[in-house]
Write a structure and sequence with these properties.
By secondary structure, the protein is an alpha+beta fold. The chain has eleven helices and ten strands. Helices cover 46% and strands 13% of the residues.
Length: 306
């Protein structure tokens, strides 16, 4: 029997695809199929969020990771992004099965998160190195959304909150909407981006110091990729005697190491921070302490203008 925490079992039981198929039975079947298809022994899963992810071993003892996606667009987008990177700066996709929406992945060892690196400047430098490796030209045929697709929620929120209470200060929401629209319209170099490259999605490995995992797959300019990094590990920012100075150093460092314009990094980080809070606003328990931190970080970024 495959191990699953109760909260994940409930979420899986509620999931289904466009045809109404899915649920916990589908997940168990996909795991059993994977064991037989790839000759695996599946071990206790990692901390589960939306998808089932667990370490496993092949018959020859090779350590791997099995990922079964619950019905969504994630499987198609993630396996396409992994295939494009082909292990360059990112975890390798060893095999996949479309019908079961299952991926067999390289296991990264020791697999420690970049968030464990206490020196924030060093962590940002390593993240920038990964960013430089994983950006790829946009192929002629692809399934990826654009950052404009992701950003539509900003304009929708701005209109819906015109006469209602906004979870975000109105001035900040207005600035985020304007920035996102201006930056999206003025992009020049478009590439395939990871889309969620924060400190917990970069792991230590043997074949490279650090490698990315869990790409979302989205089309946009390289500066967009910095947004997730800048709105995570925020306790380090707010524990500092001068939080604004730490945020400024983060932005300046990424601009220098990625050869991107500072103002574009700042603008994308601010607008994405607001967008992420709007996405969270639909979830039970909103706003969380982390949501409040992200809003505070966006306010710091607003002070860095110019």
């Amino acid at each position: 029997m495959f191990m699953m925490p109760d909260n994940f079992t409930y979420r899986a039981s509620q999931s289904c695809d466009a045809t109404g198929n899915g649920g916990i039975e589908r997940l168990y079947a996909a795991l059993k199929n994977s064991e037989a298809r790839w000759n695996l022994t599946i071990e206790q899963p990692f901390n589960l969020s939306f998808n089932y992810v667990a370490p496993a071993r092949r018959a020859d003892g090779t350590a791997v990771v099995i990922k079964v996606c619950l019905p969504s667009d994630e499987f198609a987008l993630q396996h396409a992004a992994l295939r494009i990177c082909n292990g360059h700066g990112m975890v390798r996709l060893l095999d996949y099965h479309e019908e079961d929406e299952t991926m067999l992945l390289e296991r990264l060892e020791p697999g420690v998160m970049l968030s464990t690196v206490e020196d924030d400047e060093e962590a940002f430098s390593q993240a920038a190195a990964v960013m430089r490796q994983i950006r790829h030209p946009v192929p002629a045929q692809h399934p990826f959304p654009t950052i404009q697709d992701w950003g539509r929620a900003l304009a929708t929120a701005r209109a819906s909150y015109a006469q209602n209470s906004s979870p975000i200060p109105s001035k900040l929401l207005d600035e985020a909407c304007v920035l996102f629209a201006e930056l999206a319209a003025s992009q020049t170099e478009l590439v395939v981006l990871h889309g969620d490259l924060h400190q917990e999605n970069i792991l230590s490995a043997e074949r490279a110091p650090w490698l990315a995992i869990d790409p979302k797959g989205v089309i946009g300019e390289p500066a967009y990729e910095t947004g997730s990094l800048l709105r995570n590990e925020l306790q380090r920012v707010f524990d500092a005697p001068q939080p604004l100075r730490v945020m400024a150093r983060r932005v300046d460092q990424l601009a220098a190491e990625l050869d991107c314009k500072r103002e574009r990094i700042r603008g994308w980080a601010l607008s994405q921070a607001v967008l992420s809070v709007l996405w969270d606003a639909k979830e039970p328990g909103f706003p969380t302490a982390f949501d409040r931190q992200i809003i505070a970080a966006a306010e710091l970024l607003a002070q860095l203008k110019g």
